[in-house]
Specification:
With about 800 residues, the chain is an alpha/beta fold. It contains 26 helices and 25 strands.
Length: about 800
């Protein structure tokens, strides 16, 4: 945020030398040369301008609404949404996306209107007539609001109608309308169109980088040669997720022969360097480098094929991305392109720079210098100079683009808003992978696991049950893949994945760096592409390092995208306790996870449930957090008879592990995970004293089976809730609220909680023993409750 350092549009060709040579501003061709070499047709040349004008006009509309008190042309409308515009950056979106196909993918950011419109524009250019007609008529709300023409014989008119539909749906999303791309649930910063390969824009800076890498890993695994462009601002490349994901994309095991397939990840990191992350200046203030690309040799020996590109020249952005896409498709990715450009507006509309008095972090002189190389004006001049268009045609094109935007804005303003009764639409998928597509069935194995020869009803441990389930799901469905810290050769910190590498090979299960955010973010991206990833986070304490990816991405992506995608992602995580590992390896954080709508939370307490519920989680088309307690893995407490064949235990259904004889004094005890074993031990002791405990294992925190809980409460009239987590704001509080709401009249005494004290877990054996709830605590609370 320094006016002392002026960043001017200096595009002098050269190299950045740091660990190797990074080309900068090397593009030298003229439009005439591009046409003569037939790398660009006259029609394509005009399309580049049309796309930039499309983007510019939509964003002028946003600015007018905010700066002119809701007035845009003939329309007066109270626009309430975000106003992060990319005016000045159009050459990046239009140039880069013009080089990829309809079936390729992009991820975007909070300043992503241009990316969305460019993906739509060039997708339309790449569709055949039948696909265009289907697109025009695919959304009922749009058809009702726009009444598009479908009986068109002219290709030109068909494309125009399709573009009207695409623009209308984009503006409708900005206005929060049901016809918007995301049903009004996402708004300006979250536009997505999964059918045309737009995996979504992200309001969290750098938030989509994990998804982009996961999409690239999916392309690599599926062998479809599809490329993912990851558009992120310069600010995002200073975020932690940037380091984690670029390192993951560059992992040597993808290309050095550890895996059967020697191919890199086909993702192109598109660093949209407009010089400012809000107000922090990338060069000279908030980093120690001149170009973000200087970091690339820190991730791979090839320097990620990095290049610094003139982002104000659409021919340069097009050329660099075209070459980058070819590199990626040849299995030599990832690629890093840093586009130097400028946003002519501030971070948002209120961040204005019209007069000298407005100069806070950049000067008018700097802004004027960049405006003199406006990508639309400079490219339009090239078109005129080469005789591709006349000035009259340019003026007409400008009027037509403005008129179309005004018309679609009017239609969007008149369109229906979502019905509040549909508030929950798009939160969860209702589907599972009950049927595996033919091409993904019967995965090949490299060796036969020994447990296939065990007795059908043999007792096995919790860990063995997890291991069997993972094998059976991977054998059943090739889309099931696993990655995480130490999950391959070592078999995970608790050996739950032991032996799976030898059975399936490293293309199906592989190690990552210690990068929790990239592990989960990559899993989300792979799930969006149709794989069924199973991620492992070693301790639940470590999931806090990835909470943006868990809570802002996995949990919200389907809902914010208007229900478009399915996200079949399973995140396995363990809980500790009782080992002296102290406050960063022993917490029970399940209540935090349950607070985020869009996640399913599973907490099995024995081997039978572990195997059946993990299978259900993997087959579910939603993000599932599967919590395994380390104290259950080995030994007798969670051991049990487990069928050898695959089976399912439903999610969202509690289980009464022990029924109470209500002819005797009885209490309902509700618990989950390792505390269920404590409850059952206490029940056995209390039974000898004539006291009955009905032990309800909730098994799934969300969706919560309230009916089973209430049924038991109505039977016993007294309730104790037992959990390992600290008492304050623990999940027990939610259970109390549900019971009070649904069974208050059936309670004969206050509900009691048994939980850990409100301190971090201590390391001292004496303190930890006092910290963790135990059988003695249960017996004391139950007896006191019966005496009330």
């Amino acid at each position: 945020m320094v006016r002392e350092i002026t960043i001017l549009p200096d595009f002098t060709p050269g190299y950045v030398e740091v660990g190797g040579k990074i080309p900068k501003f090397q593009y030298k061709k003229s439009l005439k040369q591009e046409l003569e070499e037939e790398s660009l047709t006259r029609e394509e040349a005009i399309d580049l301008l049309k796309c930039m004008l499309l983007i510019r006009n939509l964003e002028i509309m946003i600015c007018d609404f905010k700066e002119k008190k809701g007035v845009y042309g003939p329309l007066k409308y109270l626009y309430i949404g975000a106003d992060h515009v990319s005016i000045g950056q159009e050459a990046v979106s239009a140039g880069a996306i013009s080089t990829i196909s309809v079936t390729d993918f992009i991820t975007s950011n909070h300043r992503g209107h241009g990316d969305a419109l460019a993906k739509g524009y060039f997708a339309i250019k790449g569709m055949d007539d039948e696909a265009l007609v289907n697109f025009i008529t695919e959304d009922e709300e749009t058809v009702e609001a726009l009444r598009p023409e479908t009986g068109i014989s002219s290709r030109e008119q068909l494309e125009k109608e399709a573009l009207r539909v695409y623009l209308f749906r984009a503006i409708a999303e900005l206005f929060g309308k049901e016809a918007g791309w995301c049903r009004g649930r996402g708004g300006s910063m979250h536009i997505a169109d999964f059918k045309r390969g737009h995996l979504g824009a992200n309001a969290i800076v750098g938030g989509s980088m994990g998804m982009a890498v996961g999409s690239g890993i999916a392309s690599r695994y599926l062998g479809d040669k599809k490329v993912t462009l990851c558009f992120v601002g310069d600010g995002g490349f200073n975020n932690g997720i940037s380091h984690e994901t670029m390192n993951m994309a560059c992992m040597a095991q993808f290309t050095n022969g550890l895996m059967n397939k020697k191919e890199g990840v086909p993702v192109i990191f598109c660093a949209v360097n407009n010089q400012y992350g809000y107000t922090g200046q990338q060069r000279g203030e908030v980093t120690g480098i001149d170009y973000l690309a200087e970091r690339c040799f820190g991730y791979g020996k090839e320097g990620m094929h990095a290049e610094v590109v003139n982002g104000m020249d659409i021919l340069a952005t097009r050329d660099a991305t075209k070459r980058g896409a070819q590199i990626a498709r040849e299995g030599k990715g990832p690629v890093y392109l840093e586009f130097w450009c400028s946003r002519f507006k501030g971070h948002n509309v209120k961040d204005k720079l019209f007069t000298k008095e407005d100069e806070s972090y950049r000067t008018l002189d700097e802004l004027s210098a960049w405006q003199r190389v406006d990508p639309i004006n400079t490219y339009a001049e090239k078109l005129v100079e080469e005789g591709i268009v006349t000035r009259e045609q340019l003026e007409k094109l400008g009027h037509e683009t403005r008129e179309r935007n005004e018309q679609m804005a009017q239609k969007a303003a008149e369109a229906k808003s979502p019905d509040p009764k549909t508030m929950y639409f798009g939160l969860f998928s209702e589907t599972t992978s009950e049927q595996v597509p033919e091409r993904f069935r019967n995965a090949p194995t490299l060796k036969k696991p020994s447990f296939l020869d065990r007795e059908p009803e043999q007792e096995i441990t919790f860990r063995e049950a997890i291991n069997e389930c993972l094998f059976q799901e991977m054998a059943r469905d090739k889309r099931v893949v696993q990655w995480g810290e130490d999950v391959a050769d070592y078999g995970g910190a608790y050996n739950a994945t032991k032996g799976l590498l030898e059975i399936f090979g490293r293309d199906r299960i592989f190690n990552t760096a210690i990068s929790e955010a990239a592990i989960i973010g990559g899993g989300i991206g792979a799930a969006l592409r149709g794989l069924r990833p199973v991620m492992e986070i070693m301790y639940i304490d470590f999931i806090l390092l990835a909470m943006d990816q868990v809570a802002n991405q996995a949990a919200k992506w389907k809902y914010m995208s208007g229900g478009q995608p399915s996200i079949p992602l399973t995140i396995r995580v363990t809980i500790g306790g009782g080992k002296g590992y102290a406050g960063q390896h022993s917490q029970s954080l399940e209540a935090i996870l349950a607070h985020f709508p869009g996640l399913k939370i599973v907490v099995p307490s024995d081997a039978y449930d572990a195997k059946g519920m993990l299978a259900s989680a993997i087959r579910d088309d939603n993000p599932v957090i599967f919590i395994e307690h380390q104290n259950l893995y080995e030994g007798h407490i969670a051991r049990g008879k487990v069928p050898k064949e695959e089976y399912l235990v439903p999610l969202g259904k509690a289980d009464v592990k022990r029924k109470a004889d209500t002819s005797r004094p009885s209490i309902t005890l509700i618990s989950w995970s390792s505390m269920v074993t404590v409850a059952l031990q206490a029940a056995k002791t209390l039974q000898e004293e004539g006291i009955e405990l009905e032990v309800v294992d909730v098994r799934t925190l969300f969706p919560l089976d309230v009916d089973t809980i209430i049924s038991s409460v109505k039977k016993t009239n007294r309730v104790v809730i037992l959990h390992q987590a600290v008492e304050f704001m623990g999940f027990g509080a939610e259970l109390i609220a549900q019971i009070q709401q649904h069974a208050f009249d059936f309670l004969d005494a206050p509900i009691k909680r048994i939980a850990a004290p409100n301190t971090p877990p201590p390391s001292s054996p004496v303190l930890e023993k006092a910290f963790l709830p135990n059988e003695r605590d249960v017996i004391m609370v139950v007896k006191n409750l019966l005496n009330q």
